Amino acid sequence: MGEKAKGYLILIGGAEDKSKEGEILQKVVTLSGGQEACLTILTVATKEPEKVGEAYVKIFTRLGVKDVEAIDIKNRQDAQKDHIIERIEKSSGIFFTGGDQLRITSLIGGSRLYHAIFEAYKRGVIVCGTSAGASAMSATMIVEGDGNESPGGNIINMAPGLGLLEEVVVDQHFAQRGRIGRLLTVVASNPHVIGVGIDEDTAILVDPKAVFTVEGSGTVTVIDGRAIDYTNVSELMPGEPLALFNAKIHVLSPGTSFDLTSRRPIIS
Predict the structure, then answer these.
(1) Which of 80, 138, 82, 139 is nearest to 108 (CA)?
(2) Catalytic positions, please?
(3) Cβ-based neighbours of 89, under 8 Å, separated by 6 or more
(4) Where are the domains of the chain?
(5) To the nearest whole number, what is the mean pLDDT of the chain?
(6) Which CATH architecture has domain 9-261?
């Protein structure tokens, strides 16, 4: 078994409340250092970096952060630049926006920027991601797959993620886009990993001991496939239904926690 987590993460299911009363983004500010935070917004996932970056800078400024900057990574050359690395090295919080998680990994994977983020994470800097930014944090991520369908032989494309969270696959916009079928299929394909589905305006706060707590207004669904004793997932043709016996599903509400190492929910 791997270490699972090496630092602090906030993974958001997308569509978080962006008002001044928004609980999740307030938590990002608090854990980044409050008014004294040095918060860096990475817009690498989105195709509208200026619009998205400006919006988040305004939000976090309104929430009291004095030093907040949005940085876009247009290509792999940007991910090697000194001034970007220096900004990450002085940041107390790093925030990935939504968009396309494959843009995150393909543009920064293995770069100086990636290593700077990973080192910051290991020394206690809070790393946050919303929507695609949340999915990219795990060692393996879903990049494409049908939602709103029964679990089965649908094509689900997986790719290596950033690896800040090991032995976990994160899905976002979970209840709103009916993604339980695809997460069940992912876990059936590799029962070693834990599937974590995060609703919109909901987040998990992961600590270095790999225990996460649910924040926000929705729920988090955890699928544990360790005890699966039968599945036909390896035999399915596209469109054929999945059989899956003895998978364990937990639904966590705000304030409850989950230990990713022992695979047990915790009532706070």
Answers:
(1) 80
(2) 131, 149, 173
(3) 116, 120
(4) 9-261
(5) 95
(6) 3-Layer(aba) Sandwich (3.40)
**pLDDT value of residue 243:** 96
Both ends of the chain: CA-CA distance in Å? 26
Tens-place pLDDT, residues 138-197: 999 999 887 767 788 877 899 999 999 999 999 999 999 999 999 999 999 999 999 999
Burial (CB count within 10 angstroms: exposed 0-12, middle 13-18, buried 19+), residue 161:
buried
Dist CA 149 CA 42 (whole Å) = 32
Q: How confident is the model at residue 219 (pLDDT cuts 50, 70, 90)?
A: very high
Kindly report the three-state secondary structure assignment for every residue of the chain.
Answer: CCCCECCCEEEECCCCCCCCCCHHHHHHHHHHCHHHCEEEEECCCCCCHHHHHHHHHHHHHHCCCCEEEEECCCCCCHHHCHHHHHHHHHCCEEEECCCCHHHHHHHHCCCHHHHHHHHHHHCCCEEEEECHHHHCCECEEEEECCCCCCCECCCCEEEECCCCECCEEEEECCCCCCCHHHHHHHHHHCCCCEEEEECCCEEEEECCCCEEEEEECCCEEEEECCCCCEECHHHCCCCCECCEECCEEEEECCCCEEECCCCEEECC
**Burial grade of 74 (CB within 10 A; 0-12, 13-18, 19 or more):** exposed
Model-level pTM?
Answer: 0.97
CB of 233 closer than 8 Å to CB of 185: yes
